[in-house]
């Protein structure tokens, strides 16, 4: 059992505990649909020092079940910063915890594999309940996560980024091709081409 400081929403979150060794990209990790039903432990010691912004999101919401870090800097400093990591987690009702020995936790995960876990934050901490919830978690084997993270309805992709913006806008009504993308995580990368893009449910 690890004890730390809450950096996100109050509540209880259960999932498979995994680790990621990236030095940057914590917002991309949190919003990556592949982390659905997982509590992500980040091994780099200082997480949150550049804040968060809409441009770095991999999807429209945080898919990770929770976040575990060593240290949350007091100040988020970046010219693109729109919201602190703590406020970002709270805004999406995601439980997060800091002041954790992430090296010790990562060694445990590396030696024993991904483990069931539970993060509890708030005034009413019930360690026995947290342990019971972690034990009850069925794990990811056999779980159809694609249905949980996919778009609920088909839509046409209209957000364009990059140096081809002008060319794309000029030709968007006379598209030279029509591509339906599966999975939807590929949508943003495909806007480099002059195409009509449609994202559909998996």
Automatic annotation (TrEMBL):
Molecular function (Gene Ontology), one example: carbamoyl-phosphate synthase (glutamine-hydrolyzing) activity
Domain spans labelled Carbamoyl-phosphate synthase small subunit N-terminal: 1-120
Positions in coiled-coil regions: none
Keyword Ligase included in the entry's annotation: yes
Top-rank lineage group of the source organism: Bacteria
Pathway given in the UniProt record: Amino-acid biosynthesis; L-arginine biosynthesis; carbamoyl phosphate from bicarbonate: step 1/1; Pyrimidine metabolism; UMP biosynthesis via de novo pathway; (S)-dihydroorotate from bicarbonate: step 1/3
EC number: 6.3.5.5
Catalytic activity: L-glutamine + H2O = L-glutamate + NH4(+)
Annotated keywords: ATP-binding, Glutamine amidotransferase, Ligase, Nucleotide-binding, Pyrimidine biosynthesis
Spans traversing the lipid bilayer: none
Gene Ontology biological process: pyrimidine nucleotide biosynthetic process
Protein name per UniProt: carbamoyl-phosphate synthase (glutamine-hydrolyzing)
Highest classification ranks of the organism: Bacteria, Pseudomonadati, Pseudomonadota, Gammaproteobacteria, Vibrionales
């Amino acid at each position: 059992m690890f004890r730390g400081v809450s950096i996100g929403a109050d509540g209880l979150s259960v999932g498979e505990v995994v680790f990621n060794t990236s030095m940057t990209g914590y917002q991309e990790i949190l919003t990556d649909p592949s982390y659905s039903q997982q509590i992500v432990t980040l091994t780099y010691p200082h997480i949150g020092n550049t804040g968060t912004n809409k441009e770095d999101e991999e999807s429209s919401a945080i898919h990770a079940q929770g976040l575990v870090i060593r240290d949350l800097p007091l100040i988020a400093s970046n010219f693109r910063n729109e919201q602190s990591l703590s406020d970002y987690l709270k805004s999406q009702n995601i439980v997060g915890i800091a002041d954790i020995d992430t090296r010790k936790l990562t060694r445990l995960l590396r030696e024993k594999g991904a483990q069931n876990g539970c993060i509890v934050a708030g005034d009413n901490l019930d360690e026995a309940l947290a342990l019971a919830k972690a034990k009850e978690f069925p794990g990811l084997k056999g779980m159809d996560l694609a249905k949980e993270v996919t778009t609920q309805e088909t839509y046409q992709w209209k957000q364009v980024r990059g140096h081809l913006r002008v060319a794309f806008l000029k030709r968007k009504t006379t598209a030279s091709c029509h591509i339906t993308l599966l999975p939807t995580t590929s949508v943003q990368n495909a806007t480099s081409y002059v195409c009509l893009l449609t994202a559909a449910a998996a």
